[in-house]
Each structure stands twice: as structure tokens, then as C-alpha cells.
Amino acid sequence: EKGGYEHFMLKEIYEQPSAISDTYRGRMLPDQGIIRMAGVDDNIERISNARRILIVACGTSWHAGLVAEYIFEDLARIPVEVEYASEFRYRNPIISENDVVIAISQSGETADTMAAIKLAKEKGAFVFGVCNVVGSSISRETHAGAYTHAGPEIGVASTKAFTTQITVLTLMALKLAKHKGTISNSDFRFHLQELERIPEKVKEALNSDEHIRGIADIYKNATNCLYLGRGFNFPVALEGALKLKEISYIHAEGYPAAEMKHGPIALIDEQMPVVVIATKKGHYEKVVSNIQEIKSRKGKIIAVVTHGDTEVRELADHVIEVPETMESLTPLLTTIPLQLLSYHIAVMLGKNVDQPRNLAKSVTVE
Ligand code: F6R
């Protein structure tokens, strides 16, 4: 059942090239420059005229929502807010018929997300669901939706659900952008072509597995770890830290790279591994100077860089390459090494990777 893999998590990490193509297959026609998503097509005016989009989710799905915030605002020019479902509902939120709520949930059973949906519906908002489990409670409670089609995710640590959620939300943002005219036809086609190449590039990123295992071996006894990223890759830093925490029980925190100087930099010493996402285009020069700041305080740098990078290579203790793609699609690639790093560390520490202590696959309590 694990298809020859030692753990479900590893199997699911390796399934991402096919999971991502399953997500866009039948929806995206790059040659014709078309995206078809029934749940969006049927409600296109309501969604594209939204005063704002409010994304509600928990955990990894919330991180996918944060990536989507960058993508929706960049492409479709609709204001987006991302909320923890649990905080949204206890805050007397301001929400009306002019708002569109997107609820993201792998399991489709998360109690806090479900409660947020019910509240949003009561206030008249249109609620769109992005779920993986077909027929799940959330998929039934929402007005419309799009499935991720990632296939069953058994490992408690979410992996392929995250990348396929980002894929669905990217398709949705592109579709809205096209409808609203906030993207040119040529840009639109270019995005589709690049998205179509992502599964191949994820495979290339997976080729670093052995190299990453070597890095895991060096840092497996760390007691703390920082993850830094900017822009589209800031949420990836949060997700990388969550993966390490939940399966290896090593304390980790994700930060926007530029926030370092406002506090966390005090933590840096020779004991501190810092994972930095430093792909080309994404505020690259700024991230390079963040890396210099960490180096001068003797922190250990593990950098995720674009294939062929030379500048960061000179500064970092370790580099992990991912293929080049357009900036907005980099999270689909930069996530991969972070998943593998936490996986290998947890295995080396003898942790129960697929069923970490204190965690359940779907959190049906509030
Ligand atoms: C992290 C993880 C959790 C879930 C969260 C939401 O690896 O698995 O943080 O992402 O409990 O679950 P869903 O997406 O099922 O609503």
C-alpha cells in the first residue's frame, strides 16, 4: 500500500508530480488558452466582482491560502485576506454579501473551518471550497468548489495536499484575471505553459533527495531551526517550519526574511541552522543581504536556490537547487526540498513520521 516507500509521507512527497498534473488535467488547455473550472465558471460574476476574497483555513491549508493571497492579488487584483478559521469565527468578523470566502481543507472535515463557513454563509457571503476528500462535509457545505484531486493523503503531515491546493488556487486566480482583464492574453498563456511544466520540474527537485539526506544528517540534532523566505516564498518558510516541528519535534519558526532584523536575529549563533529560500527573481538581492547578516553572526545557512545560482553558493553552507520557473510558481518547487529535509530528519531521529504524537489527520474538534 505504500508502493515500496518506507512511509506514506515519502510516497506522497514523490506523488506530487502526478498529483499536480491530476489537479490541472482537464481544467487547463494551454494550447487554446483556456481554463475550465465548473465551480468558478458557474459563479464567475459573483467571484470576480467580490469586494474582497477572504480565505479561511487551518495549518498547512492556511499556508496554501497565504500563497494564494500573493497570487490572487498579483494576477486578479482582488484584495485578499487570509484568516485562521478559528480566529475568524471568534472575532465578530465584518463580512457581507459582497465578500467571497474561500475555505481550504484537505480533509474537508476540519471543525474550525466548517464553523467559519457556516458563519460566513449566515452573513450572506458566497463560499467556495477547495477540498481534497470528495464528498467531505466542507465540500457539501460550500456553495461551489474545486477539488484538488491529489488522491488520498494518509501521512498526517500534509504534503501533496499543499502543492495541489496551490495549483487549484493558481488556476482560479488565472481564470479570474482573464475574466477581469487584469492579465494579457500572452501572459495568461505563458502562465499556463509554465504551470504545465511544473510536474517535470518537481521531479527534478526530487532528484536532490540524497543530497538533502546528507544535510539532514548534519543538522538532525539541532534544537532550533529558522526558515526564511520573502514574497511568494514567505508562506513556504512557514510551511517548512511546520513540517519540521510536527514530525521531528524540533522547534522551528518561519519568518519573512526581512523581519529577522526586528528580533529573531538575536537567536542566531553557530548552533542555529537557517533555511533560506533564495530563488532568483523573488527579491533575490535582498535575500542575499539577509544571508550575509546571518553569516556574519555565524549561523549555518541551508539555501534553496535556482538551478545554476553562484552568488548564494559562495555564502551558504549548503545549497539545494530547484529548477527555474516564474516567480509566482516557485512555491510549488521550493516546498519540495523542505518536505524532504523534515522527512529525513524525523526518520533519522526515529520518530513516527506518518503518525506524529498528539496529531490526527483530521481535526474534528474545535
Ligand atoms: C500539517 C497538517 C495540519 C492540517 C490542518 C488542516 O501538516 O496536516 O496542519 O493542514 O489540520 O487540515 P485540513 O486541510 O484537512 O483542513
TrEMBL record:
Annotated ranges, domain SIS = 43-182, 215-356
Q: Give the location in the cell.
A: Cytoplasm
Source superkingdom: Bacteria
EC no. given is 2.6.1.16
| Any one GO molecular function term | glutamine-fructose-6-phosphate transaminase (isomerizing) activity
Keywords (A to Z) from UniProt? Aminotransferase, Cytoplasm, Glutamine amidotransferase, Repeat, Transferase
Q: Which reaction does it catalyse?
A: D-fructose 6-phosphate + L-glutamine = D-glucosamine 6-phosphate + L-glutamate
What residues sit in the active site? 361
The question of whether Transferase is a record keyword is answered with yes
Assembly information from the UniProt record = Homodimer.
Its job? Catalyzes the first step in hexosamine metabolism, converting fructose-6P into glucosamine-6P using glutamine as a nitrogen source.
Please identify the protein, giving its name as recorded: Glutamine--fructose-6-phosphate aminotransferase [isomerizing]
- Name the encoding gene, please: glmS
Q: Which residues of the full protein are shown?
A: 250 to 615 of 615
